[in-house]
From TrEMBL:
Keyword Signal among record annotations: yes
Superkingdom: Bacteria
Residue ranges annotated for the M23ase beta-sheet core domain, each copy included: 52-135, 206-304
Molecular function via GO: metalloendopeptidase activity
Designated name of the protein: M23 family metallopeptidase
Keywords linked to the UniProt accession: Signal
Keyword Signal: yes
Signal peptide: 1-24
Gene3D superfamilies: Glucose Permease (Domain IIA) (2.70.70.10)
Stretches that traverse the bilayer: none
Length: 308
């Protein structure tokens, strides 16, 4: 038995009747032509059922031809949760495509660049726009498809918000919030909340917190009284601490402290405003020592500076 992995669903299939593909994994071609922009990059989950992005989203248009990334054998064609999905076995790895209206059937042998279907908008990760979610499964684990796709002159930025702004040459000015939360560290803001070009992924996406430029090892303090709900290592946020502050001014508020070198508290522990919860680091998707501080209000991220 071999597990077919597609986003949020695992479907067991028997492949012996089809036979193994004749080609092993030696590099991929782009599944859309012309070469698409990457709307959202690979961001693997911490565990099998955790949040994450188990592939890459490639910009396209409804009706675009979708092509096999490499020679192989089609092992799955069908609808999962109302979304058209195709899986191809390339020997060392599988590729998955969604949402697609298939023009192939299970058991078909395909060549690299051969059309396997057309792009749909129903089930698009980029709704209301169409995009192809391309997945890669290696030894029953999700892997980054971009590792096998041609990288020379590849476009990896889609921005409906206009060109990205220049990075500030100096730290951003003082915070002018309402003081409902205390500063977690004393240091300059080096990257504010808002849309930006991600320094690691190279894509235009929301920066969901405020970055403070302080040295590794600096104590990080709870912004308000609360209860620690989680302490764990995340592939993107690095070592992080999440604190539930309950009701503040009629809203449910949580804060998180990210890219820590280590945490100083445990899940379930009560903390007071100003208690040390961890120490600044550069873990996860980070280019230097800093604190990435996040505030969620009623389940949605907000600009932390408006609360500090």
């Amino acid at each position: 038995m071999k597990a077919l992995l597609v986003p949020l669903v695992t479907v067991p299939l028997t492949l012996s009747a089809i036979g193994p593909p004749a080609h092993a994994d030696t590099g991929w071609v782009w599944p859309l032509d012309p070469r698409p922009a990457v709307v959202e990059a690979f961001d693997p989950p911490v565990d099998d059922y955790g949040a994450g992005h188990r592939g890459v989203d490639l910009a396209g248009a409804t009706g675009d031809d979708v092509r096999a990334v490499a020679p192989g054998t089609v092992t799955f064609v069908g609808s999962i949760a109302g979304v058209g999905v195709i899986t191809i076995d390339h020997g060392d790895t599988d590729s998955t495509y969604q949402p697609v209206d298939a023009t192939v059937s299970r058991g078909d042998a395909v060549d690299a660049g051969e059309q396997i279907g057309t792009l749909l908008d129903v089930g698009s990760h980029c709704a209301p726009d169409a995009c192809l979610h391309l997945g890669r499964v290696l030894a029953d684990e999700y892997a980054d498809p971009l590792e096998l796709l041609p990288s020379s002159s590849a476009v990896r930025l889609v921005t409906p918000f206009g060109p990205p702004p220049e990075a500030p040459a100096t730290p951003i000015g003082p915070i002018d919030g309402d003081g409902r939360l205390a500063m977690p560290v004393e240091g300059p803001v080096t990257s504010p909340y808002g849309m930006r070009l991600h320094p690691i992924l190279g894509i235009w996406k929301l920066h969901d917190g405020t970055d403070f430029g302080v040295g590794c090892g600096t104590p990080v303090r709870s912004a308000e009284d609360g209860t620690v709900t989680q302490t764990y290592a995340d592939s993107a946020y690095g070592n992080r601490v999440i604190v539930d502050h309950g009701d503040i001014a009629g809203s449910a508020v949580t804060t998180s402290y990210n890219h820590l070198t280590s945490w100083a508290v445990s899940a379930g522990e009560a903390v007071r405003r100003g208690d040390v919860v961890g120490y600044v680091g550069s873990t996860g998707y980070s280019t230097a020592c800093h604190l990435h501080f996040m505030v969620e209000v009623n389940g949605s991220t907000v600009d932390p500076e408006t609360w500090l």
